[in-house]
Amino acid sequence: MDSVCFFYGVSAAVIGIITLSSYKLTIKSIGKLNLNSFKEKWILWLFFLSVIIITYITEKEHILLFVAAGLIYMLIKARPYFKIAKTTNVLILISSGFWNYESSTLMKIAIFFTKAGAFVFGSGLAIVPFLHSGVVVENKWLTEQHFLDSVAIAMITPGPVVITVGFIGYLVNGFLGAITAALATFLPCYLFTVALAPFFKKIVNNKPVKAFVEGITAAVVGALVGSVIIIAKRSIVDVSTILIALASILSLIYIKKIQEPYIILIAAVLGVLIKLSF
Predict the structure, then answer these.
(1) Rounded Cα–Cα distance for residues 167 and 147 (Å)
(2) CA 105 to centroid of chain Cα atoms
(3) For a Cys staple, 103 with which of 81, 107, 162, 237, CB 3.0–4.6 Å?
(4) Phi, psi (degrees; rounded to nearest 5) at 126
(5) Residue 149 neighbours by CB distance under 10 Å
């Protein structure tokens, strides 16, 4: 069986799944799509829409935009009166020079996936558009189709996020690449959790910290939505793929017990039938 036929429907289903995931993440992180939310959180919505446009035009995700959104919102909503300059300098240093470090492919994998693990907020599938930006657009490690195939394969297995990053790492640099990608993705989350756990009660209600997180989250979610649009533009190529993507979204909304792997498998079968019929 031709793999093109198999992944024809799978790619469309993946787009539908991550589109719905991005929508849920948006309303959870910023607010519902209604007039009151737009009025009360207009700055966050402005960040969100601006980053969508910038991401779509440049086809890249810019960490400095995330940091800038967090700092601006913090200054507007809960201006701190100390250590702003030092914090800004450290964040700019982390966001620019460190990530541009040139080394072997394995080191580049470690740096990129560490960045992905550290800066992606929300559900597990939220990392997929971020990975697309770095793996396909910036580093050109995989083609568009190979990337979607990796995501599709991972989504029909337990622990899809682990499988996705591991499989991508394997395709880029073999077994060591898979281990490096998986460790680099989850190590920042683990370290942040362990390091901040003793101070969580102290910082959770800190207004400047909360404002910074809200600002940066709005920008990150905007970048994720922009990336989903980019992927969809290249994967939704005809009426059949549009219908499969819409059917995937509607299935997840209205069929409560259905899981993503079943949708992927059904889409694969539909893709084969559609391709063989033409």
Answers:
(1) 10
(2) 22
(3) 107
(4) -65, -20
(5) 20
